[in-house]
Design a protein that fits this description.
Elements: H1 12-15, H2 25-35, E1 43-45, E2 50-53, E3 56-59, E4 66-68, H3 69-75, H4 78-85, H5 92-99, E5 117-118, H6 126-133, E6 138-139, H7 142-153, E7 157-158, E8 173-174, H8 178-193, E9 210-220, E10 223-237, E11 244-251, H9 260-278
Antiparallel strand pairs: 1-4, 2-3, 5-6, 7-8, 9-10, 10-11
Helix pairs in contact: 2-8, 3-8, 4-6
Length: about 290
């Protein structure tokens, strides 16, 4: 009698947790926009590509110099996001991440579903808050990531999760200002459409697509594993009238490329293209 391999039976979208990396920057920037102190065109100096926060360094891959808030998301600048989040009230980031569903089970009742971890620190240290702003210090599952981006796609409204298609979806709860959610939608579109942006490989001809990349070190006992990453892309389409959210998490990809945009972005593109075709979603007007 064959004994089934339970490793292949679990639904990794709800049972496996990981640190989401830069996919959290969309929510960090939503708080900056909500504060009224920043707009998509506010310019922030990210030179020389690093900054000291307490005894720790926050670093970007490159010295990007002066960046607008839009470009900070395009380039996925840790320095830019850190500079913004440290000017805002300390509990706001935890609150928005909690409201969109991180740190709690979805309620679908799937066996083995993990809630992940979203700790609330009192007080918040500067570096702890900074790392949370770019997706470290919390753990999530893939379903939670898709659900959180669905809040943005639904113009700030959070809906219950269901594994079954519902003929009459529930009304949901408005947890993010619709205006802020709509601004984030446009910023996510820029991540995919702007040449040189991290999500450029996820664009789909004929459709307006938005999304965010994440490349996160894999944690192990005693720290992070060197050269081992999760490559993440989560996206929404069409931006003109959001219908779908797709989240792709590639665990520890091997080879020349390991970034979320170059590894998971093209996978997202293939999946989303197929679903749009199956659902007969019309292309956006030119």
């Amino acid at each position: 009698r064959l004994i089934p391999n339970t490793e292949n039976l679990r639904n990794r979208a709800v049972t496996d947790t990981f640190e989401p990396g830069s996919t959290m920057k969309a929510f960090s920037i939503s708080l900056a926009l909500k504060s009224g102190h920043y707009t998509a065109d506010t310019v922030i100096n990210t030179s020389p590509g690093w900054m000291r926060v307490g005894h720790n360094l926050v670093k970007d891959e490159h010295n990007n110099g002066l960046l607008t808030v839009r470009q900070i998301l395009d380039k996925s600048s840790n320095v830019g996001v850190t500079k913004m989040i440290l000017t805002l009230p300390r509990d706001q980031l935890w609150e928005i991440l909690h409201r969109v569903g991180f740190g709690e089970v979805s309620g679908i009742g799937f066996p083995g579903e993990q809630s992940g971890s979203l700790l609330k620190h009192q007080p918040w240290g500067d570096f702890t808050l900074a790392t949370l702003a770019w997706g470290y210090g919390l753990s999530i599952n893939t379903l939670q990531l898709a659900r959180a981006y669905a809040v943005i796609a639904m113009h700030g409204k959070k809906l219950p999760v269901s594994l079954l298609r519902l003929d009459h979806p529930p009304a949901g709860e408005q947890i993010m200002d619709a205006d802020i959610a709509n601004q984030i939608l446009l910023l996510l579109e820029s991540v995919v459409t702007e040449k040189g942006a991290t999500g450029y490989m996820a664009r789909i001809p004929g459709y307006r697509v938005g999304g965010k990349t994440g490349t996160a070190w894999i944690a192990s006992h005693g720290g992070y594993e060197k050269h081992n990453y999760n490559a993440i892309f989560v996206g929404i389409a069409p931006i003109s009238d959001p219908r779908l959210v797709v989240a792709v998490v590639m665990h520890n990809p091997r080879g020349k490329y390991y970034h979320g945009g170059t590894v998971s972005g093209p996978v997202f593109k293939k999946i989303m293209e197929g679903i749009l075709r199956i659902l007969n979603v019309p292309p956006d007007a030119a």
